[in-house]
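Please, structure for the following, as C-alpha coordinates.
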Amino acid sequence: MIVGSQLHYIPSPTPDVALRDIGFFLRKMEAAKKRHLFPIRVKTALIVVIFGMILAEIAMVYFSLVTSSTNRENYKNTSTKLAYTVALSIDKEKAQAITDKVSGFYNDDPTKPGRDQQGTPEYETYMAKFETVRAMQEYKDIQAYLHAVKLANNETDGVYLGYVDLASKHAIYVCYDEENEDFPLGIIDDLYEEDYPMVEAPEIGFVASIYTDEATGLMLATTGAPVYGPNGKIPSKSGNIICYAFVDIRMDAVRALQAERIVRLFIYLMSTVVLLSIIGIIVINVIIIRPVKALQKAAMSYDVNNPDQTHEIFKKLDVKVHDEFQNLAEAMKTMENDVNLKIHELMQANDALAASQLVAGKMAELANKDALTGVRNKIAFDNVVKSLNEKISKGEEIEFGLAMIDLNYLKDINDNYGHDSGDRALVKLCNLICAIFAHSPVYRVGGDEFIVLFKNRDYNEAKQLVAEFEDKIAKLSKDKDLSPEEQVSAAIGYTAYIEGKDTSVDDVFKRADQLMYVNKRKMKKKTR
Protein backbone atom coordinates (compact mmCIF):
# COMPACT_ATOMS: atom_id res chain seq x y z
CA MET A 1 0.00 0.00 0.00
CA ILE A 2 1.04 3.65 -0.47
CA VAL A 3 1.34 5.95 2.54
CA GLY A 4 2.21 9.52 1.57
CA SER A 5 5.02 9.25 -0.99
CA GLN A 6 6.61 6.11 0.50
CA LEU A 7 6.08 2.53 -0.72
CA HIS A 8 5.21 -0.11 1.87
CA TYR A 9 5.16 -3.76 0.78
CA ILE A 10 2.49 -6.04 2.21
CA PRO A 11 4.26 -8.96 3.91
CA SER A 12 3.62 -12.13 1.91
CA PRO A 13 2.91 -15.46 3.57
CA THR A 14 6.32 -16.86 2.58
CA PRO A 15 7.38 -20.32 3.82
CA ASP A 16 10.27 -20.98 6.15
CA VAL A 17 13.83 -21.50 4.95
CA ALA A 18 13.40 -25.24 4.46
CA LEU A 19 10.43 -24.72 2.15
CA ARG A 20 12.29 -22.17 0.03
CA ASP A 21 15.21 -24.57 -0.35
CA ILE A 22 12.86 -27.33 -1.53
CA GLY A 23 11.27 -24.95 -4.05
CA PHE A 24 14.68 -24.01 -5.39
CA PHE A 25 15.57 -27.70 -5.77
CA LEU A 26 12.35 -28.44 -7.66
CA ARG A 27 12.88 -25.55 -10.05
CA LYS A 28 16.38 -26.83 -10.71
CA MET A 29 15.02 -30.27 -11.57
CA GLU A 30 12.46 -28.74 -13.92
CA ALA A 31 15.17 -26.74 -15.69
CA ALA A 32 17.28 -29.89 -16.01
CA LYS A 33 14.61 -31.43 -18.21
CA LYS A 34 15.17 -28.75 -20.81
CA ARG A 35 18.92 -28.44 -20.51
CA HIS A 36 21.22 -30.39 -22.83
CA LEU A 37 23.64 -32.42 -20.69
CA PHE A 38 27.16 -33.45 -21.60
CA PRO A 39 27.21 -37.22 -20.92
CA ILE A 40 29.73 -38.63 -18.44
CA ARG A 41 30.77 -41.32 -20.91
CA VAL A 42 31.76 -38.57 -23.36
CA LYS A 43 33.72 -36.75 -20.68
CA THR A 44 35.42 -40.00 -19.70
CA ALA A 45 36.32 -40.74 -23.31
CA LEU A 46 37.68 -37.21 -23.75
CA ILE A 47 39.81 -37.50 -20.61
CA VAL A 48 41.21 -40.85 -21.69
CA VAL A 49 41.86 -39.57 -25.22
CA ILE A 50 43.50 -36.37 -23.98
CA PHE A 51 45.80 -38.17 -21.56
CA GLY A 52 46.46 -40.84 -24.17
CA MET A 53 47.40 -38.22 -26.74
CA ILE A 54 49.67 -36.48 -24.23
CA LEU A 55 51.44 -39.75 -23.49
CA ALA A 56 51.58 -40.52 -27.21
CA GLU A 57 53.11 -37.11 -27.89
CA ILE A 58 55.71 -37.64 -25.16
CA ALA A 59 56.52 -41.08 -26.54
CA MET A 60 56.80 -39.72 -30.09
CA VAL A 61 59.09 -36.88 -29.00
CA TYR A 62 61.24 -39.30 -27.02
CA PHE A 63 61.33 -41.76 -29.92
CA SER A 64 62.21 -38.96 -32.34
CA LEU A 65 65.06 -37.74 -30.15
CA VAL A 66 66.41 -41.23 -29.56
CA THR A 67 66.20 -42.32 -33.20
CA SER A 68 67.60 -38.98 -34.37
CA SER A 69 70.57 -39.34 -32.04
CA THR A 70 71.09 -42.98 -33.06
CA ASN A 71 70.89 -42.18 -36.76
CA ARG A 72 73.32 -39.30 -36.41
CA GLU A 73 75.82 -41.56 -34.67
CA ASN A 74 75.35 -44.26 -37.32
CA TYR A 75 76.02 -41.81 -40.13
CA LYS A 76 79.04 -40.42 -38.32
CA ASN A 77 80.41 -43.95 -38.03
CA THR A 78 79.68 -44.65 -41.70
CA SER A 79 81.40 -41.42 -42.75
CA THR A 80 84.40 -42.21 -40.53
CA LYS A 81 84.78 -45.76 -41.85
CA LEU A 82 84.57 -44.68 -45.47
CA ALA A 83 86.99 -41.78 -44.96
CA TYR A 84 89.60 -44.07 -43.38
CA THR A 85 89.00 -46.66 -46.11
CA VAL A 86 89.76 -44.03 -48.76
CA ALA A 87 92.82 -42.82 -46.80
CA LEU A 88 94.22 -46.37 -46.65
CA SER A 89 93.38 -47.47 -50.18
CA ILE A 90 94.26 -44.37 -52.19
CA ASP A 91 97.42 -44.32 -54.29
CA LYS A 92 99.84 -42.56 -51.94
CA GLU A 93 102.39 -41.58 -54.56
CA LYS A 94 99.80 -39.94 -56.85
CA ALA A 95 98.13 -38.26 -53.84
CA GLN A 96 101.52 -36.95 -52.73
CA ALA A 97 102.32 -35.69 -56.21
CA ILE A 98 99.24 -33.53 -56.58
CA THR A 99 99.33 -32.46 -52.91
CA ASP A 100 102.93 -31.31 -53.26
CA LYS A 101 101.93 -29.32 -56.33
CA VAL A 102 98.88 -27.70 -54.68
CA SER A 103 100.70 -26.95 -51.41
CA GLY A 104 103.57 -25.47 -53.38
CA PHE A 105 101.30 -22.99 -55.17
CA TYR A 106 99.66 -22.17 -51.85
CA ASN A 107 102.91 -21.66 -49.94
CA ASP A 108 104.47 -19.58 -52.73
CA ASP A 109 101.55 -17.13 -52.88
CA PRO A 110 102.00 -14.45 -50.21
CA THR A 111 98.38 -13.20 -50.46
CA LYS A 112 96.69 -16.57 -49.96
CA PRO A 113 93.26 -15.23 -51.09
CA GLY A 114 90.25 -16.98 -49.56
CA ARG A 115 86.61 -17.28 -50.68
CA ASP A 116 85.80 -13.77 -49.54
CA GLN A 117 88.25 -12.40 -52.16
CA GLN A 118 86.63 -14.09 -55.15
CA GLY A 119 86.63 -11.79 -58.20
CA THR A 120 89.77 -9.91 -57.17
CA PRO A 121 92.88 -9.97 -59.39
CA GLU A 122 94.84 -11.70 -56.63
CA TYR A 123 92.27 -14.47 -56.42
CA GLU A 124 92.10 -14.97 -60.17
CA THR A 125 95.91 -15.07 -60.46
CA TYR A 126 96.10 -17.57 -57.60
CA MET A 127 93.41 -19.88 -58.98
CA ALA A 128 94.86 -19.83 -62.54
CA LYS A 129 97.97 -21.64 -61.30
CA PHE A 130 96.00 -24.82 -60.63
CA GLU A 131 95.21 -25.45 -64.26
CA THR A 132 98.58 -27.23 -64.46
CA VAL A 133 97.46 -29.52 -61.65
CA ARG A 134 94.28 -30.43 -63.50
CA ALA A 135 96.42 -31.45 -66.47
CA MET A 136 98.44 -33.89 -64.38
CA GLN A 137 97.68 -37.58 -65.00
CA GLU A 138 97.97 -38.19 -61.28
CA TYR A 139 95.19 -35.67 -60.65
CA LYS A 140 92.92 -37.33 -63.22
CA ASP A 141 93.60 -40.77 -61.76
CA ILE A 142 92.94 -39.67 -58.18
CA GLN A 143 89.75 -37.85 -59.23
CA ALA A 144 88.52 -40.96 -61.08
CA TYR A 145 89.20 -43.07 -57.98
CA LEU A 146 87.34 -40.66 -55.69
CA HIS A 147 84.43 -40.55 -58.10
CA ALA A 148 84.28 -44.35 -58.19
CA VAL A 149 84.11 -44.43 -54.39
CA LYS A 150 81.25 -41.95 -54.47
CA LEU A 151 79.30 -43.99 -57.01
CA ALA A 152 79.82 -47.16 -55.00
CA ASN A 153 78.15 -45.60 -51.95
CA ASN A 154 74.65 -44.37 -52.69
CA GLU A 155 74.33 -41.85 -49.86
CA THR A 156 77.75 -40.29 -50.43
CA ASP A 157 77.56 -36.61 -51.43
CA GLY A 158 81.26 -35.90 -51.85
CA VAL A 159 84.69 -37.59 -51.63
CA TYR A 160 87.73 -35.30 -51.78
CA LEU A 161 91.27 -34.61 -50.59
CA GLY A 162 92.40 -31.58 -48.65
CA TYR A 163 95.72 -30.16 -47.50
CA VAL A 164 95.85 -28.38 -44.11
CA ASP A 165 98.16 -25.50 -43.20
CA LEU A 166 98.35 -26.06 -39.45
CA ALA A 167 100.01 -22.72 -38.74
CA SER A 168 97.41 -20.62 -40.56
CA LYS A 169 94.52 -23.00 -39.83
CA HIS A 170 93.67 -23.17 -43.52
CA ALA A 171 92.20 -26.07 -45.48
CA ILE A 172 93.07 -26.18 -49.23
CA TYR A 173 91.10 -28.42 -51.61
CA VAL A 174 93.49 -30.77 -53.46
CA CYS A 175 91.07 -32.90 -55.47
CA TYR A 176 87.25 -33.29 -55.55
CA ASP A 177 85.51 -36.39 -56.95
CA GLU A 178 84.30 -34.17 -59.82
CA GLU A 179 84.74 -30.54 -60.77
CA ASN A 180 82.58 -28.42 -58.46
CA GLU A 181 82.03 -24.64 -58.60
CA ASP A 182 81.54 -24.48 -54.83
CA PHE A 183 84.75 -26.42 -54.11
CA PRO A 184 87.22 -25.67 -56.94
CA LEU A 185 90.75 -27.00 -56.86
CA GLY A 186 93.04 -24.88 -54.65
CA ILE A 187 90.37 -22.81 -52.91
CA ILE A 188 91.19 -21.86 -49.34
CA ASP A 189 88.77 -22.30 -46.42
CA ASP A 190 89.30 -21.54 -42.73
CA LEU A 191 89.13 -24.43 -40.30
CA TYR A 192 86.04 -24.58 -38.10
CA GLU A 193 86.65 -24.00 -34.42
CA GLU A 194 85.53 -27.56 -33.68
CA ASP A 195 88.47 -28.80 -35.83
CA TYR A 196 91.14 -26.89 -33.87
CA PRO A 197 92.18 -29.92 -31.77
CA MET A 198 93.74 -31.52 -34.87
CA VAL A 199 96.15 -28.56 -35.12
CA GLU A 200 97.88 -29.87 -31.98
CA ALA A 201 97.35 -33.51 -32.93
CA PRO A 202 97.11 -33.84 -36.75
CA GLU A 203 96.86 -37.62 -36.56
CA ILE A 204 93.28 -37.44 -35.12
CA GLY A 205 92.12 -35.87 -38.38
CA PHE A 206 88.73 -34.23 -38.74
CA VAL A 207 86.43 -35.93 -36.25
CA ALA A 208 83.01 -36.84 -37.68
CA SER A 209 80.50 -34.00 -37.36
CA ILE A 210 77.04 -33.05 -38.66
CA TYR A 211 76.44 -29.83 -40.52
CA THR A 212 74.16 -28.35 -43.18
CA ASP A 213 75.64 -27.50 -46.56
CA GLU A 214 74.81 -23.85 -47.23
CA ALA A 215 74.99 -24.33 -51.00
CA THR A 216 72.66 -27.35 -51.27
CA GLY A 217 70.77 -27.29 -47.98
CA LEU A 218 71.66 -30.95 -47.40
CA MET A 219 72.38 -32.33 -43.97
CA LEU A 220 75.80 -33.99 -44.13
CA ALA A 221 77.94 -36.20 -41.91
CA THR A 222 81.59 -35.31 -42.62
CA THR A 223 84.88 -36.97 -41.58
CA GLY A 224 88.48 -36.23 -42.59
CA ALA A 225 90.99 -39.09 -42.21
CA PRO A 226 94.79 -38.55 -42.47
CA VAL A 227 96.50 -40.00 -45.58
CA TYR A 228 100.02 -41.22 -44.70
CA GLY A 229 102.89 -41.64 -47.18
CA PRO A 230 106.50 -42.72 -46.67
CA ASN A 231 107.95 -40.07 -48.97
CA GLY A 232 105.78 -37.07 -48.25
CA LYS A 233 107.35 -33.61 -48.05
CA ILE A 234 104.72 -32.09 -45.72
CA PRO A 235 106.09 -31.49 -42.23
CA SER A 236 103.93 -32.92 -39.48
CA LYS A 237 104.03 -33.29 -35.75
CA SER A 238 102.67 -36.82 -35.98
CA GLY A 239 104.48 -38.67 -38.69
CA ASN A 240 104.26 -38.40 -42.42
CA ILE A 241 100.73 -37.08 -43.25
CA ILE A 242 100.31 -36.23 -46.94
CA CYS A 243 96.79 -34.83 -46.81
CA TYR A 244 93.33 -35.71 -45.51
CA ALA A 245 90.65 -37.81 -47.22
CA PHE A 246 87.21 -36.29 -46.65
CA VAL A 247 83.83 -38.01 -47.05
CA ASP A 248 80.40 -36.27 -46.92
CA ILE A 249 77.43 -38.61 -46.30
CA ARG A 250 73.93 -37.31 -47.13
CA MET A 251 71.41 -37.67 -44.30
CA ASP A 252 68.25 -36.86 -46.23
CA ALA A 253 67.27 -40.54 -46.12
CA VAL A 254 67.49 -40.35 -42.33
CA ARG A 255 64.70 -37.84 -42.15
CA ALA A 256 62.46 -39.85 -44.43
CA LEU A 257 63.08 -43.04 -42.45
CA GLN A 258 62.55 -41.25 -39.17
CA ALA A 259 59.28 -39.68 -40.41
CA GLU A 260 58.05 -43.10 -41.56
CA ARG A 261 58.80 -44.62 -38.17
CA ILE A 262 57.07 -41.77 -36.37
CA VAL A 263 53.95 -42.22 -38.51
CA ARG A 264 53.91 -45.93 -37.67
CA LEU A 265 54.37 -45.16 -34.00
CA PHE A 266 51.59 -42.56 -34.15
CA ILE A 267 49.17 -45.08 -35.70
CA TYR A 268 50.07 -47.64 -33.05
CA LEU A 269 49.68 -45.20 -30.18
CA MET A 270 46.39 -43.82 -31.50
CA SER A 271 45.03 -47.35 -31.84
CA THR A 272 46.01 -47.96 -28.24
CA VAL A 273 44.33 -44.74 -27.13
CA VAL A 274 41.10 -45.69 -28.93
CA LEU A 275 41.14 -49.17 -27.37
CA LEU A 276 41.74 -47.76 -23.90
CA SER A 277 38.92 -45.25 -24.44
CA ILE A 278 36.49 -48.04 -25.30
CA ILE A 279 37.54 -50.09 -22.26
CA GLY A 280 37.31 -47.00 -20.04
CA ILE A 281 33.81 -46.16 -21.27
CA ILE A 282 32.61 -49.72 -20.64
CA VAL A 283 34.00 -49.74 -17.09
CA ILE A 284 32.68 -46.27 -16.27
CA ASN A 285 29.29 -47.18 -17.74
CA VAL A 286 28.97 -50.16 -15.38
CA ILE A 287 30.21 -48.61 -12.14
CA ILE A 288 29.12 -44.96 -12.52
CA ILE A 289 26.88 -44.10 -15.45
CA ARG A 290 24.13 -46.65 -14.81
CA PRO A 291 23.50 -45.56 -11.18
CA VAL A 292 23.76 -41.88 -12.17
CA LYS A 293 21.26 -42.31 -15.01
CA ALA A 294 18.84 -44.07 -12.65
CA LEU A 295 19.05 -41.14 -10.22
CA GLN A 296 18.81 -38.65 -13.09
CA LYS A 297 15.73 -40.32 -14.55
CA ALA A 298 14.03 -40.28 -11.14
CA ALA A 299 14.89 -36.61 -10.56
CA MET A 300 13.66 -35.52 -14.00
CA SER A 301 10.39 -37.38 -13.56
CA TYR A 302 9.20 -34.83 -11.05
CA ASP A 303 6.40 -32.62 -12.37
CA VAL A 304 6.54 -29.48 -10.24
CA ASN A 305 3.65 -28.00 -12.23
CA ASN A 306 1.29 -30.61 -10.81
CA PRO A 307 1.04 -29.95 -7.06
CA ASP A 308 -1.56 -32.69 -6.58
CA GLN A 309 0.81 -35.43 -7.67
CA THR A 310 2.39 -37.60 -4.98
CA HIS A 311 5.99 -38.35 -5.88
CA GLU A 312 7.32 -41.84 -5.22
CA ILE A 313 9.99 -42.07 -7.91
CA PHE A 314 13.02 -42.44 -5.65
CA LYS A 315 11.16 -44.84 -3.41
CA LYS A 316 11.10 -47.32 -6.33
CA LEU A 317 14.83 -47.05 -7.02
CA ASP A 318 16.96 -50.14 -6.53
CA VAL A 319 20.58 -48.89 -6.56
CA LYS A 320 22.90 -51.48 -5.02
CA VAL A 321 26.44 -50.56 -5.93
CA HIS A 322 27.75 -50.37 -2.34
CA ASP A 323 29.26 -46.92 -2.66
CA GLU A 324 28.36 -43.22 -2.47
CA PHE A 325 25.70 -43.60 -5.19
CA GLN A 326 23.74 -46.01 -3.01
CA ASN A 327 23.98 -43.56 -0.10
CA LEU A 328 22.80 -40.79 -2.42
CA ALA A 329 19.79 -42.87 -3.50
CA GLU A 330 18.78 -43.39 0.15
CA ALA A 331 19.18 -39.68 0.85
CA MET A 332 16.99 -38.87 -2.17
CA LYS A 333 14.26 -41.16 -0.82
CA THR A 334 14.29 -39.26 2.46
CA MET A 335 14.15 -35.96 0.62
CA GLU A 336 11.26 -37.21 -1.50
CA ASN A 337 9.32 -37.87 1.69
CA ASP A 338 9.88 -34.30 2.88
CA VAL A 339 8.93 -32.87 -0.53
CA ASN A 340 5.62 -34.72 -0.55
CA LEU A 341 4.76 -33.25 2.86
CA LYS A 342 5.71 -29.66 2.02
CA ILE A 343 5.06 -29.23 -1.71
CA HIS A 344 1.50 -27.90 -1.36
CA GLU A 345 2.55 -25.28 1.19
CA LEU A 346 5.38 -24.26 -1.09
CA MET A 347 3.10 -23.77 -4.10
CA GLN A 348 0.71 -21.64 -2.07
CA ALA A 349 3.57 -19.53 -0.76
CA ASN A 350 4.92 -19.04 -4.30
CA ASP A 351 1.49 -17.89 -5.53
CA ALA A 352 1.18 -15.41 -2.69
CA LEU A 353 4.70 -14.10 -3.30
CA ALA A 354 4.03 -13.62 -7.03
CA ALA A 355 0.83 -11.67 -6.27
CA SER A 356 2.71 -9.47 -3.78
CA GLN A 357 5.48 -8.76 -6.29
CA LEU A 358 2.93 -7.82 -8.96
CA VAL A 359 1.29 -5.30 -6.61
CA ALA A 360 4.69 -3.91 -5.62
CA GLY A 361 5.66 -3.50 -9.27
CA LYS A 362 2.51 -1.57 -10.09
CA MET A 363 3.00 0.68 -7.06
CA ALA A 364 6.61 1.36 -8.04
CA GLU A 365 5.49 2.27 -11.58
CA LEU A 366 2.83 4.67 -10.29
CA ALA A 367 5.29 6.28 -7.87
CA ASN A 368 7.62 7.26 -10.76
CA LYS A 369 4.93 8.43 -13.22
CA ASP A 370 3.43 11.90 -13.64
CA ALA A 371 -0.36 11.58 -13.33
CA LEU A 372 -1.25 14.38 -15.80
CA THR A 373 1.19 13.80 -18.71
CA GLY A 374 2.15 10.15 -18.27
CA VAL A 375 5.90 10.88 -18.45
CA ARG A 376 8.37 10.27 -15.63
CA ASN A 377 8.14 12.52 -12.57
CA LYS A 378 10.67 14.23 -10.29
CA ILE A 379 11.18 11.08 -8.16
CA ALA A 380 12.30 9.21 -11.28
CA PHE A 381 14.57 12.11 -12.27
CA ASP A 382 16.15 12.20 -8.79
CA ASN A 383 16.94 8.47 -9.08
CA VAL A 384 18.62 9.02 -12.47
CA VAL A 385 20.60 11.97 -11.07
CA LYS A 386 21.81 9.77 -8.21
CA SER A 387 22.99 7.09 -10.63
CA LEU A 388 24.76 9.62 -12.89
CA ASN A 389 26.46 11.28 -9.91
CA GLU A 390 27.85 7.90 -8.79
CA LYS A 391 29.38 7.35 -12.23
CA ILE A 392 30.85 10.88 -12.25
CA SER A 393 32.38 10.39 -8.79
CA LYS A 394 33.98 7.11 -9.93
CA GLY A 395 35.52 8.82 -12.95
CA GLU A 396 33.63 6.71 -15.48
CA GLU A 397 33.42 8.00 -19.07
CA ILE A 398 29.83 9.06 -19.70
CA GLU A 399 28.06 11.27 -22.24
CA PHE A 400 24.77 13.02 -21.54
CA GLY A 401 23.06 16.38 -21.89
CA LEU A 402 20.12 18.14 -20.21
CA ALA A 403 17.45 20.30 -21.77
CA MET A 404 15.39 22.45 -19.42
CA ILE A 405 11.96 23.35 -20.94
CA ASP A 406 9.51 25.76 -19.31
CA LEU A 407 5.95 26.50 -20.51
CA ASN A 408 5.35 30.25 -20.95
CA TYR A 409 2.21 32.03 -19.74
CA LEU A 410 0.77 29.04 -17.80
CA LYS A 411 -0.56 31.38 -15.07
CA ASP A 412 -2.30 33.59 -17.66
CA ILE A 413 -3.98 30.52 -19.25
CA ASN A 414 -5.12 29.27 -15.84
CA ASP A 415 -6.43 32.72 -14.80
CA ASN A 416 -8.17 33.55 -18.08
CA TYR A 417 -9.38 30.17 -19.33
CA GLY A 418 -9.32 27.89 -16.32
CA HIS A 419 -7.04 25.19 -14.98
CA ASP A 420 -8.40 22.59 -17.42
CA SER A 421 -7.06 24.71 -20.27
CA GLY A 422 -3.73 24.99 -18.45
CA ASP A 423 -3.60 21.19 -18.11
CA ARG A 424 -4.33 20.78 -21.82
CA ALA A 425 -1.52 23.23 -22.63
CA LEU A 426 0.88 21.16 -20.47
CA VAL A 427 -0.20 17.94 -22.19
CA LYS A 428 0.15 19.61 -25.62
CA LEU A 429 3.71 20.74 -24.78
CA CYS A 430 4.61 17.33 -23.31
CA ASN A 431 3.42 15.53 -26.45
CA LEU A 432 5.51 17.87 -28.61
CA ILE A 433 8.60 17.26 -26.44
CA CYS A 434 8.13 13.48 -26.57
CA ALA A 435 7.65 13.55 -30.35
CA ILE A 436 10.80 15.56 -31.09
CA PHE A 437 13.04 13.96 -28.48
CA ALA A 438 11.72 10.47 -29.20
CA HIS A 439 14.87 8.63 -28.06
CA SER A 440 15.34 10.44 -24.74
CA PRO A 441 13.52 10.09 -21.38
CA VAL A 442 11.33 13.09 -20.49
CA TYR A 443 10.61 14.16 -16.91
CA ARG A 444 8.06 16.63 -15.50
CA VAL A 445 9.88 18.11 -12.51
CA GLY A 446 7.58 21.06 -11.73
CA GLY A 447 4.22 22.57 -12.59
CA ASP A 448 5.35 23.92 -15.95
CA GLU A 449 8.90 22.53 -16.12
CA PHE A 450 10.17 19.55 -18.09
CA ILE A 451 13.65 18.04 -18.35
CA VAL A 452 14.94 15.95 -21.27
CA LEU A 453 17.92 13.64 -20.65
CA PHE A 454 19.93 13.37 -23.90
CA LYS A 455 21.82 10.11 -24.54
CA ASN A 456 23.11 8.08 -27.49
CA ARG A 457 21.39 9.10 -30.75
CA ASP A 458 19.65 12.23 -29.41
CA TYR A 459 22.90 13.28 -27.69
CA ASN A 460 24.74 13.22 -31.02
CA GLU A 461 21.94 15.18 -32.76
CA ALA A 462 21.17 17.54 -29.87
CA LYS A 463 21.67 20.84 -31.75
CA GLN A 464 19.40 19.81 -34.65
CA LEU A 465 16.69 18.56 -32.26
CA VAL A 466 16.76 21.71 -30.12
CA ALA A 467 16.54 23.84 -33.27
CA GLU A 468 13.59 21.74 -34.50
CA PHE A 469 11.83 22.20 -31.15
CA GLU A 470 12.33 25.98 -31.18
CA ASP A 471 11.04 26.15 -34.76
CA LYS A 472 7.84 24.22 -33.98
CA ILE A 473 7.20 26.20 -30.80
CA ALA A 474 7.58 29.43 -32.75
CA LYS A 475 5.02 28.27 -35.32
CA LEU A 476 2.53 27.05 -32.68
CA SER A 477 2.69 30.24 -30.66
CA LYS A 478 1.94 32.32 -33.78
CA ASP A 479 -0.84 30.12 -35.18
CA LYS A 480 -3.99 32.25 -34.69
CA ASP A 481 -6.23 29.37 -35.80
CA LEU A 482 -5.47 27.47 -32.59
CA SER A 483 -7.19 27.89 -29.25
CA PRO A 484 -5.23 29.69 -26.50
CA GLU A 485 -4.22 26.43 -24.75
CA GLU A 486 -3.01 25.03 -28.08
CA GLN A 487 -0.89 28.13 -28.89
CA VAL A 488 1.78 26.85 -26.54
CA SER A 489 4.96 28.80 -26.05
CA ALA A 490 7.98 27.40 -24.24
CA ALA A 491 11.62 28.27 -23.64
CA ILE A 492 14.40 25.69 -23.84
CA GLY A 493 17.94 25.64 -22.55
CA TYR A 494 20.32 22.81 -23.45
CA THR A 495 23.85 21.96 -22.34
CA ALA A 496 26.03 18.83 -22.21
CA TYR A 497 28.07 17.32 -19.41
CA ILE A 498 31.74 18.40 -19.59
CA GLU A 499 34.14 15.80 -18.21
CA GLY A 500 36.72 17.28 -15.87
CA LYS A 501 34.71 20.47 -15.36
CA ASP A 502 31.36 19.28 -14.04
CA THR A 503 31.50 17.55 -10.66
CA SER A 504 27.81 16.59 -10.56
CA VAL A 505 24.60 16.62 -12.57
CA ASP A 506 23.64 19.80 -10.70
CA ASP A 507 26.39 21.71 -12.54
CA VAL A 508 24.87 20.69 -15.88
CA PHE A 509 21.34 21.42 -14.63
CA LYS A 510 22.24 24.95 -13.54
CA ARG A 511 23.73 25.81 -16.94
CA ALA A 512 20.69 24.44 -18.76
CA ASP A 513 18.36 26.35 -16.41
CA GLN A 514 20.26 29.63 -16.95
CA LEU A 515 20.15 29.18 -20.73
CA MET A 516 16.42 28.46 -20.54
CA TYR A 517 15.76 31.71 -18.63
CA VAL A 518 17.91 33.66 -21.08
CA ASN A 519 15.77 32.29 -23.93
CA LYS A 520 12.58 32.97 -21.97
CA ARG A 521 13.50 36.65 -21.53
CA LYS A 522 14.29 36.94 -25.25
CA MET A 523 10.92 35.41 -26.16
CA LYS A 524 9.02 37.77 -23.86
CA LYS A 525 10.82 40.81 -25.31
CA LYS A 526 9.73 39.81 -28.82
CA THR A 527 6.07 39.60 -27.77
CA ARG A 528 6.00 43.13 -26.32
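Residues 1-19, 232-238 have pLDDT under 50 and may be disordered. The two ends are 51 Å apart (CA to CA).
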